[in-house]
Amino acid sequence: MDTALQTLDELFSKDVHYAIPSYQRRYVWQEEDQWEPLWADVKKAAETYLQYQSKALRAHFLGAIVLQQKENKLTEPLQYEVIDGQQRLTTLQLLLSAVKNTLMELRQDKAGYLKSLIYNQPLFAEQQLLKITSTRHDQAAFRIVMTHPEEAENSNSRLAQAYRYFSDQVSEWLSGIDESQLAERSDSLLTVLKSKLQFVVIETESDDDANLIFETLNARGTPLLAWDLARNYIANHTRSGMATSLNLDEFSSDWWQEETGRGKERRTRIDSLLIAWMTMRVVKRNDPQTGLPASAVDTRTARAVFDAFQRYVRVHEGAVERVAADLIQVSEHYRKMLELSDNSPLGVFLQRWRTLPSGGFNSVVLWLLAELDGTEAEEEQRQQACAVIESYVVRRLLTGKSRGGGGQDTLRLVTDLLNLLSLSGKEHIGDKVANYFDRLRDSNQRMACPSDQDLRGALEKDFPLYGAEGKLNRRQTVMVLRAIEAHLRDDVLDLPINFTIEHLLPQKWTRTHYPHPDASVDLDSDPEARAEREILVSTIGNLTLVTRKLNARLSNGPFSEKKAKLNQYDVLLMNNHLQSMQKWDEGDIRRRSRQMAEYCAEIWPAPDKLSDGTLVE
User: What span, in angstroms and rounded, lies between the C-alpha atoms of 452 and 610?
Assistant: First the structure.
């Protein structure tokens, strides 16, 4: 490979075409992290040049770019593929265009000196007139910005935003000065752009060199995703034309690139898919010495995820096309897992599942979606297995035993389940999953599925569900109450969509409207009774759903007024029995909690009740 320092003039002034491959990441640079620092560097260099001229101004280093020269016809400009550095090259073209257009608006004839850095000679084909061809996803927006920027004035594309940012900054720096100063500043800016910005340009000789460099480089800019590395690997290890036929471009869309999750678990959807897919494909039996999964996917860094991907491909004798095709096929089910919201049994399950602290179990659900999607019998087995897993997670949530998605215990369960699924015949998957969770009470008591007694005990013993003391968030609480309403109706089809949670005994209760059932108890002076009530307010027996939010006066007012409003506006069966109530206090809440606990036990049966193939709604 060849390595050399090059200025923008050396990089762009010749007739050359830099193609950004379709497998590369779309344009993602943004103002605070990249545009602003770049412009600050350029402006500082121009101001230094103005003050000291070239004697004291050193070239400013912009990092490394990796290129691979391709064969070109006599009628074509030099052809290069951009292996790394496409974000910087694209941004610099936007900056050059913004400077050129601003100078033209200010009637500075020096703008012409930048045209050769942006356009090739007009004798070349139209698609090669610009120095850069962006990715398929960005190309249309890039071409409009570079050739007709006025048409991109109201565009929300990241490329148009970058162009507008640089145009505004250049205009501001060149405004409010006389003609002499304008000429001097224009000269200094052109000099810096053409000859004082430098790259280390690495030209590779083979695909292997290009792939290796791409994997190890992470220059200034947005850190590489695990998918960036995997996509580059696929593109460089597939037969000619196969990468295009695999349609990897879809993973560059806004939906796949959007970040989801919280904290250290925050990732783009495409990286989350890669991790879930890798987990369901590479997980092995537990190591008998450590008790830990022998090949659990290390998700701490993008590089670690990519290393697992490489190992998986090599184990499959380098069948990159087959591995990539499998990922694409699974991605359709992953998207379904995140978006399907119809009233089918699977749609209802997935709506509930998305509210739960499911964590590592996502890879198990993804396996069930991807592998059991054929016959009616397979769909029944999938429905049964999903019902078991949902019951397990919900029961642990409602009893306060949920550990979210983390921890070695959950990892062991996921490992065991994936091994069970991969080694079992599809015709018995549902029963095997149910039996596995049923046996947990003997093999791993800490992670066992709570029994009916556990569930009733928690909900009847003042378990705070939602509110100031609650353990569930709003979406989880709505899901539980909505499931109870569907259970009462024995049908989810005519259930309203939007709900608000209402505390029957208000969170801001007054002793006047809601006295203690024991007349001898003074809630103002008895801290124990007051504390007991504060917890009861958050329990399942005190919660309901309303389709129209009550105003604060009604919500905190007497129970008789609240009851009348519920009767006027709501059609929910769970609220029907309230019409016969004359009051609402501690005893009423506990009685309703017992009833709600029974409903929950019926909606989310224990594993032993699902092992015979019984399905739930």
Answer: 13
Per-residue model confidence as pLDDT tens digits over 223-245: 667 888 888 778 777 765 455 56
Residues 178-191 pLDDT 10s: 889 999 999 999 99
Q: What single string gives the DSSP state of each residue in 497-541?
A: S--EEEESS-TT--TTTS--SSTT--TTT-HHHHHHHHHHTTSGG
CA distance 479 to 153: 44
Question: Of 315, 312, 239, which Cα lies nearest the Cα of 277?
Answer: 312
Q: Please answer whether residues 258 and 340 qualify as being in contact, where contact means their C-beta atoms are separated by less than 8 angstroms.
A: no
Distance CA 65, CA 575 (A): 66
Rounded Cα distance between 273 and 335, Å, is: 9
Q: What is the rounded CA–CA span in Å between residue 500 and residue 137?
A: 40
Which tokens in the block code for residue 42? 């350029």
Q: Write out the DSSP string of 110-139.
A: GGGGGHHHHB--TTS-GGGSBSEE--HHHH
Cα–chain-centroid distance for residue 238? 28
Lowest average pLDDT, out of 24-33, 76-85, 486-495, 574-583, goes to 486-495
Rounded Cα–Cα distance for residues 31 and 189 (Å): 20
The Cα–Cα gap between 103 and 98 comes to 9
List strands edge to edge, sheet with 60-70: 2-7, 197-204, 60-70, 78-84, 16-19, 132-133
3-state secondary structure of 366: helix
Cut 0.85: pTM above it: no
Burial of 405 (C-beta count, 10 Å sphere; 0-12/13-18/19+): middle
Contact between 395 and 457 (Cβ < 8 Å): no
What is d(CA 419, CA 295) in angstroms, rounded to the nearest whole number? Answer: 12
